[in-house]
Specification:
single chain, mainly beta, Tumour Suppressor Smad4, 6-stranded antiparallel β-sheet, 12 strands, 0% helix
Length: 107
């Protein structure tokens, strides 16, 4: 099922409400005047509320996407979609993609 492409200005949160930002968006392709994001890009997370050990195993520091588009690529690399899945380090939890651009879809 098609999903909207993730771009640099998308709102991505760890499951504990930390704000995630792409470390290196793909600057050569833009949607809504903002660079898109490809699968190998690491997301840096700030403001995660999960407590550190021994109370929990947080806070989330980075996130790495494990799924991406199967048919859409930029520079030969799969692009991230609104329904792509990620894992946060060190917690192993996912992310919520709350807001993204709504003009370009991919599969």
């Amino acid at each position: 099922m098609p999903g909207f492409l993730l771009h640099q200005g998308a709102t991505v949160l760890c499951l504990h409400a930390g704000q995630a930002q792409p470390a290196a968006p793909f600057l050569r392709v833009k949607v809504s005047s903002q660079a898109i994001v490809t699968q190998p890009t690491i997301y840096n997370i700030a403001g995660c509320t999960l407590p550190p050990p021994p109370a929990a195993n947080g806070p989330c520091v980075t996130a790495q996407f494990i799924t991406a588009a199967t048919r859409v690529r930029a520079g030969g690399i799969p692009v991230l979609l609104q329904d792509s899945k990620a894992l946060c380090v060190p917690t192993g939890t996912g992310v919520n993609i709350v807001v993204t651009q709504i003009r370009v879809k991919g599969v």
